[in-house]
Inverse folding.
């Protein structure tokens, strides 16, 4: 920790003692009006480098930090006005001056005048010149994005600009694996990038821009260098372990081709060093660009996944990981009117996990421990994942656009686990122990299809029709082979066996159709009326059965209505909506409401249970445009939340070896209201971005679990609670780039929640409060070593039990001798609690040295992961009924030597 503090002081001293002077002033037009968003750039006459740049604020002010005793050519540009060049010689004093730009009829609106400007703005688009931020150590898009002002990239490859998540990544205007940014930021070569364009207020349908509320929609487009267009480019990497008893390898080919008519991307990754290009989590969250078309309707009916609870990797680390990955993405324009695109992603992963854990189960006071278990387990997983998408867009003219998309997802997942389990009662009294063998497997499949048509009749009338169909099939199988005999009464199996071998088959099938027709009428240039007609219809089937394998190998089918399911469930929502959007001064208002007719009908146990009702759901959107880049937004939504078939099926479902669950066919919907307020400010004058948000939600009649515990064994069912759940959350962020070479960011976030469950017949109300503080600071020198410092601090307060997490980190990268790149990263983790019973810590250190001559085709790399040879990590979590601590084994130190050939 003392080293971290020293580096922070060193970082500050670098800034404090920089020998720079300030050149500031105001840019005006010939009418003496200040010009906002004018570009100002200073080129050092000696080095010919861009030493400073600025974009004027709403008062026309600019500010440059220049070297003392130097000569500069300062260029002032503004669309539609004549460019002005000013030669200045700095001394040791600051300079202040007013600049006037004259009219120039030869300048056309929309033309990008200054291509070498590090950052420029054109309408809703921010343009970053990538070379202005590269230092030589960058190898992929992610490395470039992290150095851009206002842009952040997390470890999962998710990109945020000005606090808003980037939902679409394109290259040369063509989709790059639509629906996720990870594959792009982790694979697009840094040396191919010319410009990064951030498209704010993004809407793929031009006819709807201005009609819908797009303020939170952000896309990113990568412009390639001229030498990368109409040519194949990419690289081929191969690496092998050095000095290991086991064989370690990595093969990573990447190939790209872009032309105006078509594009092709090919990515491969084969390794056994724990590098995961595509995880199970990525698979489940990958949307393929499909959006929630009913988000404005006020109905939440989400088809849940029959997830078996296959263990997910923590921090993408495990004892052993072997990956085979391949992906291709294409786009083709057979005519100007038609675009066809798609992708295919295939991944095969084998994972070994070794974990020790202890779980404590809490009494109704959420403090007293009434039982606990210790587990020592070894698991082996195989995950084969596949995603396929085909899209077509047809635009015969400016008035009509037709889209079609199909996304198919399939997987084959299998997990075998062997564990030694011990049970303890009150006061840690030993009860029993057993060896357990479990198997989980499933081969789910889904296909989602989308058809959209948009027609602009004239300037006043716009029509939008959207249709979406989901077909989903799941077949999870679970087997638990135990020494003990849990749930013997509930499941009614043969207890006169040496071991209890329980098995359950489940089959869930879903067909869901969403349809919506929107009509927009422009009342005035600043107001429109939106009429909506829509419906959602879902039909689901849920079948399950439990059987026992006896000691002699025979099958004992467990019969009875309580241990099987044969359920059909229909849900329908027909609704009409009315919204009125209008602009007045700096304000935009969009109030509205929707009228719904809901019907739910579940058929099981030779009878059906049907509910019909009507509901009016209001919503409200308001925007205060304080300045061009400063807004305050308010949202109010009322929603009806419906469960799907999984919580309605009344037969027992074996969720785990110590948990069974029964649904409740008489569940009603929950009703929720959410208020959110968001503030945003982005100041290009000093590259400062500030954003904050606060949200409050209250859910009435929520669906909760009513659980009964017998030591560690849990029997649960679903009920509607009479007590509301509440959540209050907020976050604030301040980020700034300054003196050209420095970037800092501070984020503060908090979440308070109050929720209720039923445990052993008693209502259990609990509150939790989580605080998170994150600070990052980095340099971006061209010829000096660069440092990135980070510090995270999290406080989890659950019913007075406080847990603290500290995560300092430091990264060093240095490009030297015009050929060498050195990168090293250190992370430290410490987890404690307020009563001093938990004290876990671990750290990771990695480093790499790369040699590549400028313009050379070959690259040589020596890298090492887990240099400190950390053998295991700790993980802790808690909820209303339990808290647990686990320790899992991770891969040891690897030293790799690799070569890369650049096309």
């Amino acid at each position: 920790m003392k080293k971290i503090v020293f580096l922070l002081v060193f970082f500050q001293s670098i800034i404090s003692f920089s020998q720079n002077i300030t050149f500031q002033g105001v840019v005006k037009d010939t009418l003496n009006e200040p010009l906002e968003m004018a570009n100002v750039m200073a080129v050092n006459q000696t080095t010919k480098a861009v030493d400073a740049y600025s974009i004027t604020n709403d008062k026309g002010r600019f500010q440059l930090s220049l070297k003392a005793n130097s000569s500069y050519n300062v260029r002032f540009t503004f669309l539609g006005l004549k460019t002005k060049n000013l030669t200045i010689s700095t001394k040791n004093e600051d300079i202040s001056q007013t600049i006037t730009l004259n009219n120039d009829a030869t300048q056309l609106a929309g033309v990008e005048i200054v291509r070498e400007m590090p950052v420029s703005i054109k309408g809703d688009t921010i343009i970053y010149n990538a070379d202005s931020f590269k230092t030589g150590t960058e190898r992929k898009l992610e490395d470039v994005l992290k150095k851009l002002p206002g842009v952040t990239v997390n470890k999962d490859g998710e990109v945020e600009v000005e606090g808003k998540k980037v939902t679409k990544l394109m290259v040369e205007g063509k989709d790059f694996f639509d629906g996720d940014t990870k594959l792009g930021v982790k694979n697009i070569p840094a040396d191919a990038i010319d410009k990064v364009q951030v498209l704010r207020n993004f809407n793929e349908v031009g006819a709807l821009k201005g009609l819908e509320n797009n303020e939170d929609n952000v896309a990113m487009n990568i412009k390639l260098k001229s030498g990368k267009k109409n040519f194949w480019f990419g690289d081929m990497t191969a690496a092998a372990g050095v000095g290991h008893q086991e064989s370690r390898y990595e093969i990573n080919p990447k190939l790209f081709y872009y032309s105006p008519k078509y594009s092709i991307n090919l990515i491969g990754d084969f390794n056994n060093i724990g590098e995961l290009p595509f995880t199970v989590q990525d698979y489940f969250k990958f949307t393929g660009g499909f959006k929630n078309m009913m988000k404005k309707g006020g109905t939440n009916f989400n088809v849940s996944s029959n997830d078996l609870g296959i263990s997910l990797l923590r921090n993408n680390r495990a004892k052993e990981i072997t990956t085979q990955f391949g992906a291709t993405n294409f786009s083709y324009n057979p005519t100007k009117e038609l675009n066809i695109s798609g992708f295919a992603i295939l991944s095969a992963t084998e994972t070994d996990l070794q974990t020790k854990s202890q779980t404590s189960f809490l009494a109704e006071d959420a403090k007293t421990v009434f039982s606990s278990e210790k587990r020592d387990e070894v698991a082996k997983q195989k995950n084969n994942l596949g995603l396929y998408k085909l899209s077509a867009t047809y635009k015969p003219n400016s008035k009509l656009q037709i889209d079609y998309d199909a996304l198919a997802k399939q997987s084959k997942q299998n997990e075998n686990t062997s564990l030694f389990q011990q049970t303890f009662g009150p006061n840690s009294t030993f009860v029993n122990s057993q060896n357990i063998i479990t198997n989980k497997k499933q081969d789910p499949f889904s296909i989602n299809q989308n058809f959209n048509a948009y027609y602009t009749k004239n300037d006043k009338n716009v029509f939008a029709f959207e249709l979406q169909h989901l077909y989903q099939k799941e077949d999870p199988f679970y087997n638990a082979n135990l020494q003990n005999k849990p749930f013997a009464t509930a499941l009614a199996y043969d207890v006169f066996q040496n071991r209890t071998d329980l098995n359950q088959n489940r089959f869930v099938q879903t067909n869901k159709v969403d349809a919506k027709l929107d009509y927009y009428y422009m009342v005035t240039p600043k107001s429109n009326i939106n009429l909506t007609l829509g419906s959602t219809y879902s039909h689901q089937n849920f079948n399950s059965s439990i059987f026992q394998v006896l000691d002699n190998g025979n099958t004992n089918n467990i019969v009875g209505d309580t241990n099987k399911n044969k359920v059909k469930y229909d849900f329908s929502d027909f609704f009409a909506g009315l919204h009125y959007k209008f602009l007045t001064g700096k304000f935009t208002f969009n109030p509205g409401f929707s009228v719904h007719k809901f019907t739910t009908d579940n058929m099981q146990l030779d009878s059906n249970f049907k509910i019909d009702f009507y509901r009016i759901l209001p919503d409200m959107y308001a925007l205060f445009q304080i300045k061009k880049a400063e807004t305050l937004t308010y949202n109010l939504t009322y929603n009806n939340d419906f469960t799907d078939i999984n919580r309605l099926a009344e037969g027992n479902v074996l969720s785990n070896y110590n948990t069974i669950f029964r649904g409740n066919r008489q569940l009603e919907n929950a009703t929720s209201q959410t208020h959110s307020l968001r503030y945003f400010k982005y100041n290009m004058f000093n590259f400062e971005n500030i954003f904050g948000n606060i949200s409050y939600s209250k859910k009435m009649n929520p669906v909760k679990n009513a659980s009964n515990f017998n030591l560690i064994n849990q029997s649960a069912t679903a009920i509607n609670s009479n007590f509301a759940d509440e959540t209050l959350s907020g976050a604030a962020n301040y980020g700034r780039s300054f003196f050209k070479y420095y970037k800092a960011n501070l984020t503060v976030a908090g979440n308070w929640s109050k929720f209720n469950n039923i445990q052993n017949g008693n209502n259990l109300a609990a509150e939790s409060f989580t605080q998170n503080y994150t600070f990052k600071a980095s340099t971006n020198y061209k010829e000096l070593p660069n440092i990135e410092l980070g510090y995270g601090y999290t406080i989890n307060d659950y019913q007075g039990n406080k847990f603290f997490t500290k995560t300092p980190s430091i990264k060093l990268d240095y490009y030297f001798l015009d050929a060498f790149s050195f990168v090293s990263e250190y992370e430290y983790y410490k987890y404690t609690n307020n009563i001093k019973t938990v004290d876990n810590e671990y750290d990771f250190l990695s480093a790499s040295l790369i040699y590549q001559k400028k313009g050379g085709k070959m690259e040589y790399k020596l890298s090492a992961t887990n240099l400190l040879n950390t053998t295991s990590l700790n993980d802790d979590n808690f909820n209303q009924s339990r808290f647990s601590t686990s320790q899992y084994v991770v891969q040891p130190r690897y030293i790799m030597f690799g070569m890369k050939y650049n096309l």
